[in-house]
Structures are given as structure tokens and as C-alpha cells.
Design a protein that fits this description.
Number of domains: 4
Number of helices: 20
Shape: globular
Length: 473
């Protein structure tokens, strides 16, 4: 049941007059605003009284609403049991009690402390003819997404420090430096090193590949996330929750931090107790430390380690290309894998033929790859540096500029020159995400013949005319 239908059912059928009056009192709705179910439904999702209402809740209840906020679908009453009825018993009779008996206390607490405070949507799932669900099992709950911006912080007192902390890229760098020896799996890092066919970097016929795909720097980020998720699942494999995964909770918790805020293992204690109490403090420490060693978390050492996500807006000083690129006696470019930025490696690989000699990665320009590379690659600062400082690359770029637009080596390919800026913008918006479209220098675009009709429609709609020029004219 979606949120709109749940809200409608709650306001029109579920809430009693007592419930409605309680919500109005806490949220500050007037008698007029609650005069009819339709009016009450419209006002319920407003921000009226939310700040004051959230101030009435305990920090544990705030945490619970945060957890509920990150779950997309409705939940049943069992979601709230760890908070409102956390008692555990080893008595065998407990397991023979009905669902209703086990959750009656929790339901009363949720109704009183959350529903009647006007911060939760409640509705009853329809009873189908062949369903054996009890009414207690059919109750559904949602936290309105419209309320999320007004939630108090997940952590009341995170550790605050303006110190930068430390971030490492040792694990990623190890993958890169292993390119000359792709079979090598020994690790100098204690971070998990996942090496499989999908994430092993190797050179096939002069092309750097990530598994069976041409290498992209973004693949390294995928590897980081997969490695951390694998480690989280391994460590917290006993922590099962019907709605939430520990990795999702961890990521959400870190995403809620403001600038200069850090978390220790202790901060997670209340969150875990309410959600996944099978995860131990030592497990959390190991998971956070793994995230740090994979380069996904920053670490600050004080009396104990504190963690946070890296600052996405932080600018790092780039090393000059002379720090990781040099010319060999034979005119090839030697790539120092210890220092080259990952994005620079991608750009060089896209226009070069690579090979390994004496445990070194060597690059030579490839005319075919240069011709296929998009403009963004050729405009990259490091590629421009190569073109200006490495004779082999200078020679090829000079030849390409001289012959640019004179030769087409593809069949079933159309080339168009678009001089009008507004039309060019429209075409980019329409087709730039398609791999078959290339936006080239000097206002040229290239695309397969199959797209001709679609391109001409955009041109005609903008009020322009297509002028066709046959080859050789």
C-alpha cells in the first residue's frame, strides 16, 4: 500500500475522534483544520508543529524514525518491538504465543507515542479471503518523507573536531601497482583484497581491462563498495533484520554527519540496540576499520578512533605529470603506477597501446584509439601535457589535426556539422548519453545511420534545415 493511500485510509477510516484530537493538540492543528477527514488529510503532511512534536520524543524514538525513514516501504508492528518491548526470554511458552500477544504491548506504545503525536502514518492492510493474517499482522506503518527534513539529528552528541583526520588509498593503489603482475595476490594491506575476474586489472592486446571491460576509474569505486559490503556481510552475518541491512544503517548514519563531526563505535550502540542487537562492538570496530583501509572512511585518532565519510568537496593538490610520467630511451612513456592519479591512468589508457617490460608499464600512442576517443579525453590536462612534451604523442596529434574530418573509416556512419549553438545544446541533451553518438571538435557530431530520422526531427523542430553533402564534394 503506497503512502498516499495509507494516509487517506488513516484519516478517513482508521483514526478515532480521540486519535484525531490527540494529533491536533500535539501538532497545533485548529478545530477548523481537523473539521473533516479531507481537511485533516491535507494538513497532516504540513510542517506545522513538527519541530515541537519531535522535541517531545526520546532520542531512541528519533533514531527509530531515522531508520524507518531510510526504508522505502511500509513496515509492520514488529519493526518497533526492539524499542518498545525489547525483553527476551528463554521460556518455551513465549514461542507459542500468538503474533497478537507478542506485539500487543508494542502496538499500544506506537499508537500512543508516535501515531497520536502525528509523526507516523498507520493503516490496515485489506483482509483477503484466503489470508490467515490477523488484524495485528495487517497493521502497516510509514514515516512520511515530507517530515524527514525536520527530524532532529540521528546522533545527539557526535564528536566534533576541525582536524582533518587521515584517508588512505593503499588498497586501491595496490590494485594499480599489481598491473605488471596481475596474478600477484599478496597484500601489504590488511584491507580485504577481492581479486576476481570482474575486478582484476590486466592488459589484453595493448588495452588495459578491468575483467572483460575496458578500464575506467569508476570501476575502482565499485570495487571499494563491493569489498566493504562483502566484509560487512561476513562480519555481521548473524545480524538479520526483516527490513534493514547493517551496511545500509552504517552508510546512513555516516551520511547524517555535518562538517567536522565524527563517530566512534560507542555512538552506534543505541542505533544497533534498536535495530540489529546481534552486532557486537568489536564487529562495528572491525567494519569501520575495514572501511578506512579501503579508502571509504576517514579516521581520526584521539583517545580512540573516530570515523566519518571523506569530504566530497575537498580539493587535493595534484602532482605534476612529471612526477609519474617520463620518457624512455626508445621514446615510449614510462608510467609510474605508484603515483599516477587513477583518472589520468584511464585517460592515457584510452589513447595508448600499453605493454609491460621489466615490471614497468609503458605507453605508446595509438592512432586508432586517438580517433575513437571523445573530445573530453583529448582536452584532459594530462593528455594535453603528453601532446606537448612527448614527441610520439605530439607527432600523432599533429597528424590527426591535419587530417581531421577528411577521412571516415566507419561504414553506416553519418557526420554532421552543427554551427548553431542552441541546436547543438538540444542535440546534446537528447543524445549525449548514448554511446553511439560522438560529439567531436569543430562542431561535428557522428552517429549511426539508424538515428538519422531522430536527429532530423530535432533539427526540424528547432526551425533549422538539413543540408546534405555527399562524400567527395
Amino acid at each position: 500500500m503506497d503512502s498516499i493511500k495509507m494516509l487517506h485510509n488513516m484519516c478517513h477510516y482508521t483514526l478515532s475522534n480521540v486519535d484525531t484530537k490527540a494529533i491536533c493538540k500535539v501538532r497545533g492543528f485548529s478545530t477548523r483544520e481537523a473539521g473533516t477527514p479531507a481537511l485533516f488529510e491535507n494538513f497532516f503532511l504540513s510542517d506545522m508543529g513538527l519541530k515541537e512534536t519531535f522535541a517531545l520524543l526520546s532520542q531512541d524514538e528519533i533514531i527509530l524514525l531515522h531508520l524507518l525513514n531510510q526504508y522505502e516501504n511500509a513496515v509492520d508492528i514488529s519493526f518497533f518491538k526492539p524499542l518498545y518491548d525489547p525483553k527476551k526470554t528463554t521460556n518455551s511458552w513465549e514461542y507459542h504465543r500468538t503474533f497478537t500477544q507478542r506485539h500487543q504491548k508494542t502496538f499500544k506504545a506506537v499508537k500512543t507515542k508516535l501515531v497520536r503525536c502525528g509523526v507516523l502514518i498507520i493503516a490496515e492492510e485489506p483482509a483477503f479471503a484466503y489470508s490467515d493474517k490477523t488484524k495485528m499482522e495487517r497493521w502497516l506503518f510509514r514515516f512520511p518523507k515530507e517530515f524527514a527534513p525536520y527530524l532532529p539529528p540521528l546522533f545527539a552528541e557526535p564528536y566534533k573536531s576541525t582536524r582533518l583526520g587521515k584517508q588512505t588509498d593503499e588498497a586501491l593503489r595496490q590494485i594499480i601497482t599489481n598491473i605488471p603482475n596481475p596474478i600477484k595476490t599478496t597484500s601489504t594491506s590488511t584491507a580485504p583484497l577481492i581479486v576476481n575476474d570482474n575486478y582484476r586489472l590486466h592488459i589484453i592486446q595493448g588495452t588495459l581491462q578491468n575483467g572483460n571491460k575496458e578500464f575506467r576509474a569508476s570501476h575502482l569505486q565499485e570495487w571499494q563498495q563491493l569489498s566493504w559490503k562483502t566484509e560487512i556481510d561476513r562480519i555481521a552475518n548473524l545480524a538479520k533484520h526483516e527490513y534493514l541491512q547493517f551496511g545500509d544503517i552504517l552508510t546512513y548514519a555516516f551520511s547524517q554527519l555535518s562538517a567536522h563531526q565524527w563517530l566512534s563505535v560507542k555512538h552506534f550502540a543505541r542505533v544497533i540496540r534498536i535495530s540489529l542487537d546481534l552486532v557486537k562492538k568489536d564487529d562495528i570496530q572491525q567494519i569501520c576499520e575495514t572501511g578506512y583501509k579501503l579508502g571509504l572512511l576517514k579516521r581520526l585518532m584521539v583517545d580512540k578512533p573516530y570515523y566519518r565519510l571523506p569530504d566530497s568537496s575537498a580539493k587535493t593538490k595534484r602532482m605534476e605529470p612529471t612526477g609519474y610520467l617520463s620518457k624512455t630511451n626508445t621514446g615510449q612513456v614510462r608510467v609510474d603506477l605508484r603515483f599516477i592519479p587513477y583518472d589520468d591512468l584511464e585517460q592515457i589508457a584510452r589513447i595508448s597501446k600499453l605493454r609491460v617490460a621489466n615490471d614497468e608499464l609503458l605507453a605508446t600512442p595509438s592512432l586508432i584509439k586517438f580517433g575513437r576517443a571523445p573530445v573530453t579525453v583529448q582536452e584532459h590536462p594530462t593528455i594535453q601535457w603528453l601532446n606537448q612534451n612527448m614527441p610520439a604523442y605530439t607527432k600523432i596529434t599533429t597528424a590527426l589535426k591535419k587530417e581531421w574530418g577528411k577521412h571516415i573509416i566507419h561504414k553506416n556512419l553519418l557526420v554532421a556539422q552543427v554551427n548553431d549553438l542552441s541546436l547543438k545544446v538540444q542535440l546534446e541533451r537528447k543524445f549525449s548519453k548514448l554511446d553511439d553518438f560522438l560529439f567531436l571538435p569543430n562542431d561535428f557530431i557522428a552517429f549511426p545511420k539508424g538515428y538519422r530520422t531522430q536527429v532530423e526531427k530535432v533539427v526540424a523542430k528547432s526551425g533549422h534545415v538539413v543540408n546534405q553533402i555527399k562524400a567527395g564534394k
